[in-house]
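To the structural biology subgroup,

Please find below the input and predicted structure for Biotin transporter, which we are adding to the shared reference set this quarter. The sequence is reproduced verbatim from the submission form. If anyone notices a discrepancy with their own records, reply to this email rather than editing the shared folder directly, so we keep one authoritative version.
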Amino acid sequence: MAITMNDKVLSEAFGPTEGTAKIAKDVALVIAGIALMTLAAKIRVPMWPVPITMQTFGALTVGAVLGARLGLFALVGYLALGMLGLQVFTGDSAGLAYMAGPTAGYLVGFVAAAGVMGVLARRGWDRSFAHMAGAMLIGNAVIYLFGMPWMAYLFLADNGAAWVFQYGMGNFLVGDALKLVLAALVVPGLWKLLGSK
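Predicted structure (tokenized):
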């Protein structure tokens, strides 16, 4: 069955669609996704109650723009580089020890959420503010679905459920809402620039 413009994700709306040129484009898009994730991890925005990074924005946007397949490749590549010790994560930490720390569940959640965002984008959820905002809510929920159990495993016994909620999710909800609005403006806006609705 042929893919129409309505079935495409944003990265498929331009450039070659078959052959070696498409493969080269896909590789370039995956590398760009990894680069965006690395940059997003290094951006720290002063916020209350805690500073935020743009990692969740990066993961969810990469999934929406690249689609499930390329989005998963980009996020798995990003995590693999971090496991190998490259400084792609927030701060100066990397390697297997970092991957087993408090953020481990969230990092795995980025991969799953990128896949979910890609599926939703293919169904047209990235074309309007309201649908993209809904997709971002679902994507954020997926990240917390992976992140919170790992936080609970590490800290529940010593600190209690209220602490795990506050430091695992509560402190980040304001930042998540702002990133949701940003993505809900940016991705549909890019579709409008392409002249496709």
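Summary notes: Helices lie at 19-42, 55-83, 95-99, 104-122, 129-159, 161-168, 173-194. Residues 8-194 form a domain with the Arp2/3 complex 21 kDa subunit ARPC3 fold (CATH 1.10.1760.20).

Regards,
Lab coordination
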